[in-house]
Design a protein that fits this description.
Keywords: ATP-binding, Cell membrane, Ion transport, Magnesium, Membrane, Metal-binding, Nucleotide-binding, Translocase, Transmembrane, Transmembrane helix, Transport. It is found in: Cell membrane. This is Heavy metal translocating P-type ATPase. One of its GO terms (molecular function) is ATP hydrolysis activity. The chain is α+β, with helices and mostly antiparallel strands and 642 residues long. The strands form five sheets. It has a seven-stranded mixed sheet, sandwiched between helices. A six-stranded antiparallel sheet has the order 4-3-5-11-6-9, with no helix packed on it. A six-stranded antiparallel sheet has the order 14-19-18-17-16-15. The chain folds into three domains: 242 residues, no CATH class; 87 residues, Calcium-transporting ATPase, cytoplasmic transduction domain A; 124 residues, Calcium-transporting ATPase, cytoplasmic domain N (3-Layer(aba) Sandwich), CATH 3.40.1110.10. The chain is built from 24 helices and 24 strands. Strand 18 and strand 19 form a beta hairpin. It starts with 6 loop residues before the first strand and ends in a 9-residue tail after the last helix.
């Protein structure tokens, strides 16, 4: 059933659909009253006006489908049934048949308006996202502040964002600090503190700080606009099950017409029914056999799941992936940036005899202060956190794969890196060597520190496991996902250590991007439907190969939005459970809806032939089942674990 939207922002609008339903209702009531009073001619005039008012929309849509696509649809079947009832009433002088046809049109129109309301619910979250984008922004131009349309913002403009205002477009903070509420974009429940150099996103709510941010990309390229476009795309694409149902509908509609013709011709010729009964039963058959409920079994449920996800920081790229998520049997995780934070941190410091941990970290940070290497940054960050002051080294030279050397202002020569580089051919005290071996056995990287050719100590550095990672893995097991695999480009020892801490039994390490693709292929052959979770950058080929690619999108990185089928907008692994659970719920609801739709048709068909079902009751049963199926799909709009 195709209808125009009859609802906006939760309020009923007097548009064409609603006006048609209201007008048809008034005319049917007037026609019934006129028939009761014995005013036949006025009654017929009013009832036929009801046919025209309530039926012109479905008739137009049904004829367009017939003429342009050479296909029959349920709209046309309803109109044929109503006109058949009217013709039967005029032929036999049984004017209640004409009233029955008018009631059919009325219930069809009312059902269309109600279904339109139900379907509109699935788009409210996207509309709420659209409302997050302000129309105007305050810009610093020529030393003065000016209000301009957001669409007119140019790259390089500096935007003033006052406390409590919505951020008008993606921009980079140049002045000020504030806590921003990103819940509408990423689903994060707590505000995020941001300062100079950090990116803020359109539609997020500024806290109590005043910000000046520079526009680095056109407003139409903002994360908010991309999310809206992607979700609208997902809502417009039909999954395979819906396309199958639509193909079935075309064949089914032809079969319904053929059976209706048989019901009109065969029983009277065989002496089973008179012509009036045969035509009436055939008209009821047209109504109750129409697959409206079956057509509504899939898309409302999947669209509701998409809207639910968008509201809670899970972005589905298309409805087909919602269905596929419900059938996932194995989940493969990338390690770095997915199960781990992807940023190394200092995990331990061991000082040689006569030295202190502060001295070891001070010397290492002095050399690494100018380094861009992640390990060097971790050492400097650790020294800063501990409030350890360190001098600026000079004559710094890096040796790729070995370490870094330099000189302190007091002339002390410092080396930081591998043991063979820092202290070649020198013995290491037993306690320090044992500590180093233990850390390396855990998959950590040990960095040695020496001053004037004398060993000072060592620093252990490792990537940090996401705090929520272990809980996410356990949630998947509770969901029934038995096959959980880690794919990593790291060495086996480091990968195995992380896997053991998370309870993951299957580990495949030392993989290049193409190796991860092959690993996904093997998992698909072994287990069936496989989901791959990665950071959306070097995992893009594996994400594309998996049946469902799920990207840790941060606040929506470009690569993540492009390469994956599902994006976890806030980099929160617990959202993985939400997405899989939502996929299973959607699949379950669709199956329930299909079963109910088929059962409804069977019951109504039985009642037509065995219980003398009337046309109005047939219409009520048919349209009622369609509405119930639609409302059933909307159950997925509610419920979230976030």
């Amino acid at each position: 059933m195709t209808t125009q939207t009859a609802i906006s922002s939760g309020r009923l609008l007097l548009n064409a659909d609603v006006l048609a339903a209201l007008g048809c209702a008034a005319l049917v009531l007037g026609g019934w009253l006129a028939l009761q009073a014995g005013l036949i001619v006025p009654a017929l005039a009013v009832l036929f006006a009801a046919y025209l008012v309530g039926g012109q929309g479905p008739a137009r849509e049904g004829l367009e489908t017939l003429l342009h696509e050479r296909e029959l649809d349920v709209d046309l079947l309803m109109i044929v049934a109503a006109l058949g009832a009217a013709g039967l009433g005029l032929w036999q002088g049984e004017y209640h048949f004409i009233l029955d046809g008018a009631i059919l049109i009325l219930i069809f129109a009312v059902s269309g308006a109600l279904e339109s309301y139900a379907m509109e619910r699935t788009g409210r979250d996207i509309k709420s996202l659209m409302r997050l984008a302000p129309d105007q922004a305050t810009v610093q131009r020529g030393g003065e502040l000016a209000r301009v349309a957001v669409a007119d913002l140019a790259i390089g403009d500096r935007v003033l964002i006052r406390p409590g205002e919505l951020v008008p477009t993606d921009a980079r903070i140049v002045e000020g600090t504030s806590a921003l509420n990103q819940a509408a974009i990423t689903g994060e429940s707590l505000p995020v503190d941001k300062g100079p150099g950090e990116v803020i996103y359109a539609g997020t709510l500024n806290g109590n700080g005043t910000l000046i941010a520079q526009v680095d990309q056109p407003p139409q390229s903002s994360l908010l606009q991309r999310v809206i476009r992607l979700v609208e795309q997902a809502q417009s694409e039909e999954p395979p099950s819906q396309r199958s149902i639509e193909r079935f509908e075309r064949l089914y509609a032809r079969a319904v017409i053929a059976v209706a013709l048989v019901l009109v011709l065969v029983p009277p010729v065989a002496g089973l029914w008179d012509w009036q009964t045969a035509i009436y039963r055939a008209l009821i058959f047209l109504v109750v056999a129409s697959p409206c409920a079956l057509m509504a079994a899939t898309m409302p449920a999947l669209l509701s799941a998409i809207a639910n996800g968008a509201r809670n920081g899970v972005l589905f790229k298309n409805a087909a992936q919602v269905e596929t998520l419900g059938r996932v049997r194995a989940v493969a995780f990338d390690k770095t940036g997915t199960l781990t934070v992807g940023q190394p941190q200092v995990t331990g410091i061991f000082a040689a005899a006569g030295e202190t941990e502060q001295t070891v970290l001070r010397l290492a940070a002095a050399l690494e202060a100018g380094s861009e290497h992640p390990i060097g940054k971790a050492i400097v960050d650790s020294a800063t956190e501990r409030a350890i002051a360190f001098p600026q080294a000079s004559a710094v030279q890096a040796r790729t794969g070995l370490g870094i050397a330099g000189q302190l202002p007091d002339g002390t020569a410092i080396r930081v890196g591998r043991l063979g580089f820092v202290l070649p051919d020198r013995p290491v005290e037993e306690a320090l060597k044992a500590w180093s071996d233990e850390r390396e056995a855990q998959g950590q990287t040990v960095i040695w520190v020496a001053a004037d050719a004398r060993l000072t100590g060592a620093v252990a550095v490792a990537d940090r496991v996401r705090p929520e990672a272990k809980g996410a893995v356990e949630q998947l097991r509770r969901l029934g996902i038995e096959h959980i695999v880690m794919l990593s480009g790291d060495n086996l020892r480091a990968a195995q250590t992380i896997a053991d801490s998370l309870g993951i039994k299957e580990v495949r390490a030392g993989l290049l991007p193409e190796d991860k693709v092959e690993a996904i292929r093997r998992l698909q052959k072994q287990y069936g439907i496989v989901a791959m979770v990665g950071d959306g950058i070097n995992d893009a080929p594996a994400l594309a190969q998996a049946d469902v690619g799920i990207a840790m999108g941060g606040a929506g990185s470009d690569v993540a939005l492009e390469s994956a089928d599902v994006v976890l907008m806030a980099d929160r692994l617990e959202k993985l459970f939400d997405s899989l659970h939502l996929g299973r719920r959607a699949r379950s609801v669709v199956r329930q809806n299909v079963a109910f739709a088929l059962a409804s048709v069977a019951v109504l068909l039985g009642a037509n032939f065995a219980a003398d079902l009337t046309l109005p009751l047939g219409v009520l049963g048919h349209e009622g089942s369609t509405l119930l199926v639609t409302l059933s799909g909307l159950r997925l709009l509610v419920g979230s674990r976030s």
